[in-house]
Structure formats: C-alpha cells, structure tokens
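Today's session is about reading a structure prediction critically. Students often jump straight to the picture, but the first step is always the sequence itself: look for stretches that repeat, for charged clusters, for runs of hydrophobic residues. Only then move on to the predicted structure, which in these notes is written as discrete structure tokens rather than atom positions. Here is the chain we will use throughout the hour.
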Amino acid sequence: MSKAQHVNHYFSSSFKLGILGGGQLGRMLISETQKWDIYTSVLDPAKEAPCAEIANEFTQGDFNDFETVYNFGKKLAILTVEIEHVNIEALYQLKNEGVKIYPQPEVLEIIQHKGLQKDFYKKNAIPTATYERYDSLKQLKKTNFDFPVIWKSAQFGYDGMGVKVLKNANDVANLPDVPCIIEEYIQIHKEFAVIVARNKSGEVKTYPAVEMEFHPDANQVEYVICPANISDKLAKEIQEIALQVSEAFQHIGLLAIEFLMDDKGTVLVNEVAPRPHNSGHYSIEGSYTNQFEQHLRAILNLPLGEPTSLAPAIMVNLVGEEGYLGDVIYQNMDRILAWDGVTPHIYGKKMTRAFRKMGHVTIVNKDSQKAYEIAQKVKNTIRVIGKQQISCD
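Below is the predicted structure for this chain, in token form.
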C-alpha cells in the first residue's frame, strides 16, 4: 500500500483508533478526530467519563487490567493513551500481535515509573534534580536526611498527588509504604513546559516554552502563559533540552516536558508526560495547530502541523471550589463570555469536588500583559461549585 493510500485509509473508513482513558484529554482529542471523520473507540473505568457520550464506541472497563486492555485493543489498528498509568503487559502483547501502540509501550513503561524515569535522565545526561530510589517505607526510614526533601511515589501520581515536602522525621513516618524516590529540595523560581511532537517518519516539531503558575495549596497549575516571560536565550536553552529528552525517548506522538528553574537560574527536567498535556490547552485557540490535532497527526504518521502561536495566550484551569461537591454549577459564565478573546472549555464532568479539573478558559490577546489581566479577571469571576455545600474544616 502506498503512503497516499495508507493515509486515505484513516478517513471515513473502517479504520478504528483506540484511546485508553476517557477523560478530558480524550474528549478534546476526539474533537479533532471528528473533523476528519475518524472512528474512535474508548476504554475508561467510569460509566459517565467525559468521552462516553461522544466516542463512536465506548467500553467501560479497567485500563490497568491485562485482559480488559488486551480484549479492547485487539480489534483496533492503532491504540493511543490519554493517561500513562495503563497495563503495560497488555500493550506489549498487542504490539507483538501487530497493533500499533503510540506512544510505544517501552516509552510508557519508563515514564509511568518515576524511578525509571529519573534513571533514564541520568543515563542520558539530561539535567534533573539529584535523587535516590527506595523500594519500601522500611528502607526509607533507615536513611538519615538533610531536611527538607521531596518525596514522590514511584507510580500513579498526578496533579500534585503522590508528592510531598518532607520537613522532618515525623513526615517520613506518615508516608504510605510504596516504592518512591527522594529528591533534593529545590527553591523553585519558575516552572516551564515544552511540548514536542514526533511522528514515525522522524519529523519533529516543538511548541513554544510556556510558563506555569501553580496554586499554593493544591499544587495544581492555575495559569499557563504562552509565550513564557523569559529571555530568548533561556527559551532556546529550554527548547534544546526538550529536544534532547525527545530524542532520547524516540517517542511517537506528543511528549510534554516539565521544567523547574531554581533561584540561581539552573534549568532542570522535572518529569514528562507522553500525551497531550494541561500545559498545551492554550493551543486550541492560540496556535496554528493545536496539541490534540498534532498528537493525531503524529500517531497517524501524517505531516506535522505548524506549532507557532497566533498570538499571546493564557490558559486558566477551572477546578471545583473548596466547600462544594455534587452536581456541578458554573456561575458567571455569561460574564466571562462578554469579554473579547475569552473561550471556555467544559469537560463534561457532571460531579464536582474540591480542586477537580472541570474545564479551562483560554484568553487570546495581541498584548500579553492584557491577556494576563483578563485571565486574572476570569479566575476571580467564574465559580465552579456543587449543589451540596460542605464544611472545609
């Protein structure tokens, strides 16, 4: 089959693209498949997952279970992920039987384990915080630390979950008994991210470096600022390290690389995500080719799109307000829609709770300072609450 015939096979055909995970990332990816009439099949444990009502085919099931993932994947031509915490053994078996898995199982296997991920950086001379690996809490308790240090669960962490600052021995005693890493404590000055796209043909394109501002308590991203407010020299350094990471992994699809910069200006790789990422949501309105379309182009081995920004853009995460849970209510949506350049995205989650990601808002403006001012107004205006009010004590 020629490349042209192969490409045409994707559109308005019997071709099936599978997605492990039916959350908001999958939902936004499906929006791009719908532009090209690509058939999608989704697996997710939640009956009311955001993808459930829009995928061509939805299967409720555990993406950490071997049999479930294997039986789901064997009917597909290509399988991708919107979450990296999936059953790797099933993916290797499917790959051996001819199903194309992007990102590749060998990439996912490293990334889903923070210890293996840190070892990978060390092996490939990628700058990262110093660390030690521990297999159990018992082993950890035998070590004398110069506090503070950062504790990270080796697996299943996300959005700040599975990460703690340890200030003394009492903090160690209260940790869960799981494999983990201990990192040096870094006085963080700024945090950045770069998304790199790579297809099977070896074409590579990078999005601009973005700056991320975090909620002080929830350790979640509140604002993503594109372009980052940094010098051209620093932006180039971050891009070069991102390309080094991408080249080392040889991934197919997107790779989001998160960076820390300490108070001395040293840039370090924190961790990566092998999929569309919260730091790239601004690109839906802010870029010539948004990250979801780019991921689709990459895994289908299509020509990659132009990642350049159309204008400065800020993304504001919409999360559930503390003190509320239950059926979600979005207050003041009409007010933010009256402002130029403001586009909200709602993820289709019917139930809210404190700090649950429920949507995001993109602000695009030719003046980056004006965009940031509007973003702050959006953050202070819109409320994501539930019908049930609870005590925060």
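Discussion point for the tutorial: The first strand starts at residue 16 and ends at 20.
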